[in-house]
Amino acid sequence: MSLDPTKFADWQIAEEAEKGMKTVYELADKLGLAKEELLPHGHYVAKVDYKKILKRYEGKPDGKFVDVTAITPTPLGEGKSTTTIGLVQGLGKRGKNVIGTIRQPSGGPTMNIKGSAAGGGLSQCIPLTPFSLGLTGDINAIMNAHNLAMVALTSRMQHEFNYDDATLAKKNLRRLNIDPHRVEMKWIIDFCAQSLRQIVIGLGGKMDGFMMESGFAIAVSSEIMAILSVAKDLKDMRERMGKIVVAYDKSGKPVTTADLEVDGAMTAWMVEALNPNLMQTIEGQPVFVHAGPFANIAIGQSSIVADRIALKLGDYVVTESGFGADIGFEKFWNLKCRFSGSKPNAAVLVATVRALKCHGGAPVPVPGHPLDPCYKEENVGWVEKGTENLTHLINVVKKAGINPVVCINAFYTDTEPEINAVRRLAERAGARVALSKHWLKGGDGAVELADAVIDACNEPNDFKFLYELSTPLRTRIELIAEQVYGADGVDYSPDALAKVKAMEADPETSKLGTCMVKTHLSLTDNPNIKGAPKNWRLSIRDILTFKGAGFVVPIAGNIKLMPGTCSDPAYRRVDVDVETGKVKGLF
To answer: Where ATP is bound, by residue (predicted)?
Structure first.
């Protein structure tokens, strides 16, 4: 690779790397896939037939399983996806048969603040353009399946409002008595569109629908995305699809997609999406891309299906869980691993000097604005203070019984005394520590990290869940709040308290997992509070039920399921070369 990341943008580096990338046929040959197991989408992207692969490798032992998570990030992100790709490349440099499993990016952040989550510098997943702009259509399939449920719901409400029982019976419909004030689902779109959060639909005459309040959430927050993440196969997905609660009737009973008789058609949209997507790192290692991001408002994990394939095909599998260890890793730990039965061998906790300074007292970076000069100036005191957040999250990983490896994701502005402070305090907290320069040097810059991960994987661990599914729901929420976030307890809004009591009284709902919705910018439910604060309580304002995915969703603080677009979004810098058709400006 000839391009210097300090001088060239990510899209330029990716474009240069793509000139020499492997075809999907070469990747499939390296993985040992049969011809009929590869489903090409052009020369450099493919889906793979998970069912055939898993059947052929059914008796093969799994490889080592590594999760990449992070400290609480700044609004700019701290290179977790880049580190995931860098570690895959570093393990490749050590001669390991390694596969990455990462999440597909959402169009929301791709066209807004964070970019496409393809990595960065010399540690990227390529080809960048299809990765960033829809890939093989999985998110479109999710949007169609989800919005079809909303079409079925609103159409049924219109017909029930306009017709008496006898007329409904002639139309082969039974009255569901849907309560318009208890519709659980919203429409979805894969952009950050704050103007669609709250809308009124059905304006016009009786043929124009049922008039009521509604709204939009971002596509990756859909329960169908969660189902794609956790479903083991098509049969499992089909069963889960019929359990989705779209609303409640006027007596308080749930109305499901099966009640609307739309669950089969929804699954039909998702058949091809269940097959993971095959791509590669800049250095040619295979990467499976599947399911979606946003662990602050969703499960934020790559799919169980992709992990299962990778664990059969590779000796090492590096996956990524969204945002910081308080939310993404916690869901990997207590939801994904519970559903999959897979046990991780190690967890990498990504930390940057920039984020530690932010937690230690430096001004919070603002996306779209120049970074405060203090971030380029040495300040060991800020770094040391900020490691309180790092130490807290090291302890969270250790509570899962997993061996933590702290990756100091190096920026070229970091100083040696700052790096030494991070290393010293992280080792004191009981973690292995590795300095990694993968952004600048690719796999060559990640061999120290790779060696630390190999050592951690070779040590036995004592993986265990934070709670059992038999644990009462409020107790589970309190365990997550206190043991993971560091809260003193939990307070519920009156509405949330009523819901949690009803869920605890329902034998089916009470055994579901717990998928917390919380800001990714703080351990607390207040994004402005940094570090590892003490003497605070978590506020739960609402609780949703994702019966299809298999969990309840407590919502903490004021976080919204539809993010907003900033004043200087990324789409302002994305364009197309009209002579070649190549997209430029993605990152």
So the answer is: 74-81
